[in-house]
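hi! just following up on the protien thing from before. the input was this:
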Amino acid sequence: MSTGQGRAGSGAEDASRVAVSGDDGGPTTVFEHLWTPYRMAYIRGEGKPTGAHDCPFCLIPQMGDEEGLVVARGERVYAVLNLYPYNAGHLMLVPYRHVPDYTDLTPAEVAELGRFTQTAMQVVRAVSGAHGFNIGMNQGSVAGAGIADHLHQHAVPRWGGDTNFMPVIGLTRVLPQVLRETRTLLARNWPDGRPGSAGT
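and the predicted 3d structure came back as:
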């Protein structure tokens, strides 16, 4: 087995290669390593909420809609823009109750979460022509949940070619609209009669 040295960049190792040859003399497999030391704070849970008192998903409903980026409020669930979106129009559907797991939801909460997910897709398609969606929730920090203690479902709109060299090489997302404008646009087109109060 042979190893290569990583490139020096900004005083840190960026990547390295590990080449492994099979015992049978077969082809060599090259494993790429991307060093991301900035993620250690995330892994250690630094700055994560410790309960409902400092949970963003519990605090957002107490804010004004524009300040909290709330698009729509239901009886048991609300829709809010992601502050750090993967794509423009990235919504999260969030139950008001501070529960961590999908199995903790009541049947009524599950039903409203489903309706809000459908509505989110319909509204985003209507205003932006999204070609598709990534819909899902990460259950538990080990599965990638940024805030594992408060269940939230992502609705990420997708377009053909939306993954290009900017996010892949430049680690940069290009978002064509500021979040407050996106919130107002989606809230005005939310069909259930419960749009956010600000800007309507």
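Helices lie at 40-44, 56-59, 65-68, 107-128, 165-168, 179-189.
Residues 42 and 183 are 27 Å apart (CA to CA).
cheers
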